[in-house]
Amino acid sequence: xxxxxxxxxxxxxxxxxxxxxxxxxxxxxxxxxxxxxxxxxxxxxxxxxxxxxxxxxxxxxxxxxxxxxxxxxxxxxxxxxxxxxxxxxxxxxxxxxxxxxxxxxxxxxxxxxxxxxxxxxxxxxxxxxxxxxxxxxxxxxxxxxxxxxxxxxxxxxxxxxxxxxxxxxxxxxxxxxxxxxxxxxxxxxxxxxxxxxxxxxxxxxxxxxxxxxxxxxxxxxxxxxxxxxxxxxxxxxxxxxxxxxxxxxxxxxxxxxxxxxxxxxxxxxxxxxxxxxxxxxxxxxxxxxxxxxxxxxxxxxxxxxxxxxxxxxxxxxxxxxxxxxxxxxxxxxxxxxxxxxxxxxxxxxxxxxxxxxxxxxxxxxxxxxxxxxxxx
Amino acid sequence: xxxxxxxxxxxxxxxxxxxxxxxxxxxxxxxxxxxxxxxxxxxxxxxxxxxxxxxxxxxxxxxxxxxxxxxxxxxxxxxxxxxxxxxxxxxxxxxxxxxxxxxxxxxxxxxxxxxxxxxxxxxxxxxxxxxxxxxxxxxxxxxxxxxxxxxxxxxxxxxxxxxxxxxxxxxxxxxxxxxxxxxxxxxxxxxxxxxxxxxxxxxxxxxxxxxxxxxxxxxxxxxxxxxxxxxxxxxxxxxxxxxxxxxxxxxxxxxxxxxxxxxxxxxxxxxxxxxxxxxxxxxxxxxxxxxxxxxxxxxxxxxxxxxxxxxxxxxxxxxxxxxxxxxxxxxxxxxxxxxxxxxxxxxxxxxxxxxxxxxxxxxxxxxxxxxxxxxxxxxxxxxxxxxxxxxxxxxxxxxxxxxxxxxxxxxxxxxxxxxxxxxxxxxxxxxxxxxxxxxxxxxxxxxxxxxxxxxxxxxxxxxxxxxxxxxxxxxxxxxxxxxxxxxxxxxxxxxxxxxxxxxxxxxxxxxxxxxxxxxxxxxxxxxxxxxxxxxxxxxxxxxxxxxxxxxxxxxxxxxxxxxxxxxxxxxxxxxxxxxxxxxxxxxxxx
Lengths: 376, 590
Known about the structure:
CATH topology of the largest domain in chain B: Cytochrome Bc1 Complex, Chain C
Oligomer: heterodimer
Largest sheet of chain B: 3 strands, antiparallel
Shape of chain A: extended
Structural class of chain B: mainly alpha
Strand content of chain A: 5-15%
Strand order of the largest sheet of chain B: 7-8-9
Domain Cytochrome b/b6 N-terminal region profile (chain B): 36-262
Shape of chain B: globular
Helix content of chain A: 25-40%
Distance between the termini of chain B: 51 Å
CATH topology of the largest domain in chain A: Rieske Iron-sulfur Protein
Distance between the termini of chain A: 73 Å
CATH class of the largest domain in chain A: Mainly Beta
Radius of gyration of chain A: 39 Å
Strand order of the largest sheet of chain A: 4-5-6-7-12
Number of strands of chain B: 9
Keywords (chain B): Cell membrane, Electron transport, Heme, Iron, Membrane, Metal-binding, Respiratory chain, Translocase, Transmembrane, Transmembrane helix, Transport
Transmembrane segments (chain B): 69-89, 132-153, 165-185, 235-255, 284-304, 346-370, 402-423, 435-452
CATH architecture of the largest domain in chain A: 3-layer Sandwich
Region (Disordered) (chain B): 1-24
Catalytic activity (chain B): a quinol + 2 Fe(III)-[cytochrome c](out) = a quinone + 2 Fe(II)-[cytochrome c](out) + 2 H(+)(out)
């Protein structure tokens, strides 16, 4: 078996030795080498068949038969149990199962009896196959996937003849117009699909409920709005916000909406926190807040999950989806995780009655990044 | 194909005669069944192809059941899914819940969520159907993934099965998209958060992101279009493609005839196993019921996706521990590992590679790499032949190493999606864990490759050792001259065959850059790369023992396989010098 000895045709990348030469015939693949020793071992062929207990012993076969029958019987019993459970067990009754706990009795009974029905059939059939059905392996020959050469050339011939007899080659007008028509025929299907999927975003992603209603000329009032507790929908007095507390806030009027409430919530949700003003390291954060009360968008700048977890001691906000961590003392800049941008801050102040109000809308788009967010 | 494999030149009627057993008179029941079959055959001439399928031989191995698990789980999903459509309302329209689950009564929610609660609490047996549907979906993807591992590590994707590997890859990708669409439908807080993240992913597509998001959601997120659209994809579009490709997949399996593991009597030209009728009809048919039964058992005992515990979707609250189903974990994990500095702003435009790489690039990339692997390997090895005998994974150490490295990389991504859970369970810092995963992503796959390859090579050397010197019996024999030697039990030819059946391999040889006339060959560059890769693929190859090597070992180790310890090394050296296939040159030792 010398790879070096095997002839290689010059100029080609040729696999060495046996490799790559013709079909594999492991059983006949040896070549007689030096000293009459074959290059490869020869496939020794099948070993003697070892009979099973059930082939030799009628008692064992009988036992196997009884096991198969018993399993099929289990299936029938399972089905009956399923029917009984379906009608007899109240759908709200519960049952205690050790290791699993309190669970719905009907659900468990239906599932277990169904499992018995199915496993009875399945295990019975497999047991039957393994003990009583023939277990002598049989041999089927394979054939190369490649079709006979004449069939392959016939195929090329048929295609060529077809194109020729249809005048496809001789009449280019037909060829090119057909090509054009087939290339374009999807347009009537695809155009309504693309056109009808949804509206264009326009400036929608860059504004929120805090901007107010869009005017006819496309501008926004950007008027101050009260900060409302969610879900109580009540205004918040600055004095109610104690140090360390956190409020879930929506703009005034949002929770009264009849339509599109979720769409507005998805952009307008705000977290309101009060810190010791001395802890706040950013002057802009102090200026946009009110005596240490600061309001930040709750929508993560990564992919838009709500930033749900506020660590009171460290003043960190953590998004539970991908663990971006924002530091509230540093204008909510990202201190860990996959997000890049800080959470947008909502400028706030208090009105005459002492309730917290926004000084204006968010100054940038909230939520996940998008290509044109900076240009809005 | 089917007609080719039957003997040709026989008239059809004669063939049909042969199908009927001449010796036994058919019973009344058989005559009745035969009569019905005859009625069908009169109208379809189905007898011949059906006979062919019933007589088909399938080889037996436990790992061939993995694909079956996937196939049956898919069927179970189709069955239970059809039932669920009877009760599920695919609408984001608002409704006030008045069903029997008290904690949510009176709450505003979508009809999708309310109807899922209805299935879970008010439709008798609805919960078990829903649970089976979800568990079967998970089982489907587990099954197809492990099936894919089996096909990869045994080289079953080689010619002529490359196309079927590509089909399988597409099926695997569609399966996870189908799964995502499915678990998003109930519109509970967890799945809604998943859709929210998906919207964020889409939004980061360069240039067209926001337009794409508005097209998919029919306007601003969440809107009322996404649930019906996901529903249409989940129950019609994707299942239709899945089932179509699956039928093509299984048809190709029948056309190619199943691969088999090497063994005595098994060659590249035959299939050794049992016929469909009766053995595989019972085994495979029974196995469907076993898979179904096990899923029913799991569904009865272990709750999956308790949507009632999450509440209806609202974009402002969130639950800690938000994880997708396991098969989406790798993409979610990638998002947790990608650092924020991959977001860039220039000229007022924002490019969020920290999201796009994990959410938009990774998924197609993984499946493209998978899909092209057979073609790359074929190019590297230059092997153009048909392969129907499977490789033992140890006999292709480089491929096995690549596979393990890929699995490790995938696992790092997948476990990274649970970094918060790991942090809580182990009481560790989530930051440290995330960093460990980030480093692990680059460090662990090469280690996995190296370790796996070394293990494979060791196993191959062990096989050689065993084939050459048989098994040590542990019986020490004292010779007449007072020497001691250990008796080695001889291997039978059939035992040895498993160890020596595989083909010797060697790297492709580098072709000259200039032809005989001294003209530079244009393909030389490509060939150089190819030869280099081929060298990398095969350089450490441990080739099987040849008869000559065995004869040398026997010759030196006379006394009927009883080898003296002092003789042993000499035999090894003799074997090594004889073997040109042993390129590693490292002596084989006890």
